[in-house]
Structure formats: structure tokens, C-alpha cells
Design brief:
Elements: E1 7-10, E2 19-25, H1 29-37, E3 49-55, E4 61-70, E5 81-87, H2 90-102, E6 106-107, H3 112-119, H4 125-136, H5 140-150, H6 153-177, H7 185-206, H8 209-217, E7 219-224, H9 231-239, E8 257-263, E9 266-272, H10 282-296, E10 300-306, E11 323-329, E12 345-346, H11 355-365, H12 382-402, H13 409-425, H14 433-440
Parallel strand pairs: 1-6, 7-9, 7-10, 10-11, 11-12
Antiparallel strand pairs: 1-2, 2-5, 3-4, 4-5, 8-9
């Protein structure tokens, strides 16, 4: 498809702005730009910028701006490409886009520019995913992980592991094809050693799965407790603005409220919930039920209580593996004796005291294994994790078979082939058309 059509898209965000960016890519990109600019594109040197006008079919000026051309394969997509930067009005941008389409371009689908870059060998699949991660990064750590992936760190590590496994499989299959050649124990040990080395790489990458999920989706942090203890006040304090309604009336919060904050480079997806108590009506009952569902899905639970009131009975929570922090609010008032000696973060949502301590406690509770968040450059996503888990299972099965050289070595070879295919899916070394469709459908138009 990429060799037959030329695609066009508005690459800047929708809405009004200072400038807009439109892109063309494909075999007719320069010809189409020529039609729209009265021949300015074909006379332009690659990677240089020219001021020009874009005209409609009647020769009337639509806009003026800067035109840049890129000859394939020295372009983002690997094809002839054109970029036009014009004024950022909504109507004028759409008019220029319509003009490109009228001159022969077709509308680009989500992620089609990056998909063509992958298909033309400009990016591997992990780098293509890194583009979207970079666009959607919300913190410095997620930006660093996306930048590392875009630079090909994950792709290189999986490709190196796959190449090593390929050589190991070739050695084993040569032994199978030529049974008259004896395999001494040393050779068998070398095979197992090579497979074990690949397994170590796979397991080290799998260890970053939690970090990857957190960096991309945020730590699902649920604020819960009894009514009127300051849940919504805490949410507002953490956000730095009045997001939730705060009232002395118990049961004010009926639905869950979600917002994202950046805490020491880690995104927190804060969820304010309805107070847990005996519901007074059906609406409040539904809100409490939603609180229960949020607790079940949480990564971190912030249980907040009123320090000035008697300590309530221990809350019965649904099954969860989430970390849990106890927060005693209203520390500006006299603390009730029942809380003395209880380990908790003490703060006041009225004065703001204790918020730094809470921030530090949340940060300290978010260590996943021994990974140093500030230095770790690789964070796999769910697709990578599924492929790596399959590779790990196959490698372990192959190692078990290779322990006994008397068994049928073809079974070990089958397991190694499965691991090889699983590793190849990560950078896109395997032809998986459906997989590509799913990945690139999450991209924005024009990228």
C-alpha cells in the first residue's frame, strides 16, 4: 500500500494555534505539493525551507508558510515527504488539507506515518511504540523510558538475545541433522549455557513490567475512608487546585473522581471515592459500591481518618495486593487518645502541614523490587511482557530437555523455535499483520 498511495494529514493538534503543520508522504508527495504551490516543491533542495503560498484550484491564495521536502529514503517514513507549516487557524488548516486531498493524496489513518517508517525499515516495532510513549509521557521518568525505547534500547537487547538464540538453535539442528556426529558433554553444556544467557536477558526485561505499567498508566492511588474525614480535601491539596466539592455534609461525594499528578517523576492516578458507611439512599449505595471496585483495582491505598475523632473499627477491605498508607487528617486539632502510638502520616488539609511527609511516604512505598527509577532505562509494555513470558516458558522447557542429551533433541529445538518467534515479535521480526493493526491504531492522526 505504501508504494501506491500518498497520504496526507494535519500533524498539529486540533484547535487554534500560532502555526499548523501538514504532512505528505508517498511516491506523489512532491507532485501533489507542486500542484498546491504552483511548482515550488519540485525546485526545492531536500531538507531546506522555502517560503511559499498554497493556492486553491482557482488560483486564489489559501495561506502562506514554510515548505520543506525530504527525498526517500532519507525521511521519517523512508518515502518522499513534504511538510508545510502555515498559520494555525482551524479553517485555513482544513482548507489546505482539503487542497492536498484534491490534488491526489488520501487521508492518513492513525499512526500511518510511523507504520510506514516501520515497514520501510526506518524504525523497529519497539521504536515505533516509543514514539507514542514519548508523545503521551507525563513525567520525566516516563519521558526518559520512552526516549530510551525510541533510541532502540529494547529492540537491540531483544534482537541480540534472538540472534544468540538463533545461533544456538542452528547448532542444535545441525546436530539433529547429522546424528553420526557425537555430541560430547561439553557441547551440551555450551548449548545450555547459551540458552541460560538468553533466559537471563528475558527475565531481566520481565522484571521491568511493573515499572512500565506505572510509567505509562500511573499508580492507581485510591483515597478512601469514612465520610467527612477529608478525602476530597486531600485530593484538592495534592492537586493544588479545587477539583472536588468539599462540604461538612456527609456523603457529598457520590461518584469517583480521577486526576493525575506528578510525584517525584512517577505519575499518580488519584481516585477520590465516596465515604464508606451504611448508605442512606440508592445513589450513595452505588457510589460506595464503586469505591469497593476501585479498592480492588488499586496499586496504592491512602486510608484517611479523622485524628480528632475516636479510632474506628478496622475497615474490612476487599481482596487487594495494593500497598496501604494510613493518613490522620485534622492534625491541627487535638488528637484523640485512641490514636496515640499508631503509625501514620499526620497532616492537616486546612494548614497544609504534613504534606511533604505524605509525599515522601508515598514515594518510599513505590519501590518495585530493587530497580532504581532514576537510572532504569527500559520499561516494557503489556505486549512485550506477553511475548517475553512465552519466550521464558519455552526457554525453560528447552533447558529441561537439554539436561538429558539422550532424549529426542527435536523437542528442545521446537521449544527454542517458539522462544525465537516470541522474541522476534517484540522488535517486529515476525510477520504479524494483525499485531501491527492493533499497535498503530492507538496513534494520533498525522503521526
Amino acid at each position: 500500500m505504501s508504494s501506491r498511495t500518498t497520504i496526507a494529514a494535519i500533524a498539529s493538534p486540533s484547535g487554534m494555534g500560532a502555526v499548523s503543520l501538514l504532512r505528505l508522504s508517498g511516491p506523489d508527495a512532491i507532485r501533489i505539493a507542486d500542484l498546491a504551490t504552483s511548482g515550488k516543491a519540485s525546485t526545492l533542495l531536500p531538507r531546506t525551507v522555502r517560503y511559499c503560498h498554497v493556492f486553491d484550484e482557482d488560483g486564489q491564495i489559501l495561506d502562506d508558510g514554510l515548505l520543506t521536502i525530504f527525498h526517500g529514503p532519507n525521511s521519517y517514513t523512508g518515502e518522499d515527504s513534504v511538510e508545510f507549516s502555515g498559520h494555525g487557524g482551524i479553517l485555513v488548516t482544513r482548507e489546505i488539507y482539503a487542497r492536498f486531498l484534491a490534488c491526489g493524496a488520501v487521508a492518513a489513518g492513525p499512526g500511518e506515518f510511523t507504520q510506514r517508517a516501520f515497514l520501510n525499515g526506518k524504525l523497529d516495532l519497539t521504536q515505533a511504540e516509543g514514539v507514542m510513549d514519548l508523545i503521551s509521557a507525563q513525567t520525566r521518568l516516563s519521558l526518559r523510558a520512552a526516549r530510551s525505547q525510541l533510541e532502540g534500547t529494547l529492540g537491540r537487547r531483544t534482537t541480540e538475545a534472538r540472534d544468540q538464540l538463533l545461533h544456538t538453535l542452528a547448532h542444535l539442528e545441525a546436530c539433529i541433522d547429522f546424528p553420526e556426529e557425537d555430541i560430547d558433554p561439553q557441547t551440551g553444556g555450551i548449548l545450555r549455557g547459551r540458552v541460560s544467557e538468553v533466559l537471563e536477558v528475558v527475565e531481566s526485561l520481565l522484571a521491568t513490567a511493573d515499572q512500565g505499567r506505572v510509567l505509562r498508566e500511573g499508580v492507581r492511588t485510591v483515597i478512601f475512608g469514612e465520610p467527612n474525614v477529608g478525602k476530597s480535601s486531600l485530593l484538592n491539596r495534592l492537586l493544588g487546585f479545587e477539583r472536588a466539592i468539599v462540604s461538612d455534609v456527609a456523603g457529598t461525594t457520590r461518584d469517583t473522581i480521577e486526576e493525575i499528578i506528578n510525584l517525584h517523576g512517577i505519575p499518580l492516578r488519584l481516585v477520590d471515592t465516596a465515604g464508606v458507611r451504611e448508605a442512606s439512599d440508592r445513589i450513595e449505595a452505588e457510589g460506595i459500591q464503586r469505591t469497593v471496585r476501585q479498592i480492588e483495582a488499586a496499586d496504592l491505598l491512602l486510608e484517611i481518618a479523622d485524628a480528632s475523632a475516636p479510632r474506628p473499627y478496622e475497615a474490612i477491605l476487599p481482596a487487594t495486593h495494593a500497598k496501604r498508607l494510613l493518613i490522620l487528617n485534622k492534625s491541627d486539632l487535638d488528637e484523640h487518645p485512641s490514636w496515640h502510638g499508631i503509625s501514620a502520616v499526620r497532616l492537616s488539609c486546612v494548614t497544609g502541614s504534613g504534606l511533604e511527609e505524605l509525599s515522601a511516604s508515598i514515594r518510599d512505598s513505590l519501590h518495585f523490587g530493587q530497580v532504581d527509577w532514576g537510572e532504569h532505562a527500559i520499561a516494557i509494555n503489556a505486549r512485550h511482557q506477553a511475548s517475553l513470558q512465552l519466550a521464558r516458558t519455552s526457554l525453560l522447557a528447552a533447558l529441561t530437555l537439554l539436561e538429558d542429551l539422550g532424549v529426542d533433541q527435536e523437542l528442545a529445538a521446537i521449544d527454542l523455535r517458539e522462544a525465537l518467534d516470541a522474541l522476534g515479535e517484540i522488535p517486529g521480526k515476525v510477520d504479524t499483520e494483525d499485531l501491527l493493526g492493533v499497535i498503530f491504531s492507538t496513534f494520533c492522526i498525522g503521526k
